[in-house]
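Summary for the steering committee. The consortium agreed at its last meeting that each partner would contribute one worked example illustrating the joint modelling workflow. Our contribution is presented below. We chose a case with several input lines so that the handling of multiple components could be demonstrated. No manual editing was applied between input and output; the record is shown as generated.
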Amino acid sequence: MKTKIRELRKRHKISQDELASALNVSRQTIISIENERYTASLVLAYKIAKYFDLTIEDIFDFSEVNIDGTI
Amino acid sequence: MEQYKKMQRFRILLISGLFVVSVVVTSASWLTQTNESSQYYMLGLCAVLGIMTFMILLEYLRLCKNKEKLKAKAIQAQDERNIAIHEKVKSASFLVFVCLLALMTTIYAFIDVEKMNLLSSVLCLAVLVKLTLYVYYKRKL
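What follows is the complete predicted structure of the assembly.
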């Protein structure tokens, strides 16, 4: 799933390590989400959104997700 | 973090118990010399278990003293991507295990019927446990 995490991180001048420790996840998880290899859980998506003071839809692109659940 | 610390303390307790048991069994099998091959087998097994548990215990105790490392370990243990990886590995390894067991059962059906019966019962038990847990979690979740 496409995300704006990298973009937001660079805008706020935050490293992957800093974001990871703020969210209590490993740096690898942040890397995987940024590279669209791993889709974050609802809880983690909420945490990321709250961290950047945005909504989940502002960060994650749901346009490619169909109503039947396929991506 | 606190939950992980509690779990770590429980692990230390469990490993300490295992260490004590392995030391007792190793000493007992060392002292009772019967010159049976099974005794040497038991001695070797318990000695290896004792050394392993001692090393794990040292590692855990060292980890408890280092707060930075403990936090890193706690994050690694609670990380959702890591948990997802472990889940995938578990299901894939179970599938491989069942397939290999089925293959071995088929091969032993032509060689040794007794071993084939043993293997097929292990296979049935593994599948039964999986099905039972599936039904349980299907109702629970």
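Residues 16 and 31 of chain A are 7 Å apart (CA to CA). Chain A touches chain B at residues 20-21, 24-26, 28-29, 32, 38, 40-41, 43-44 (CB under 8 Å).
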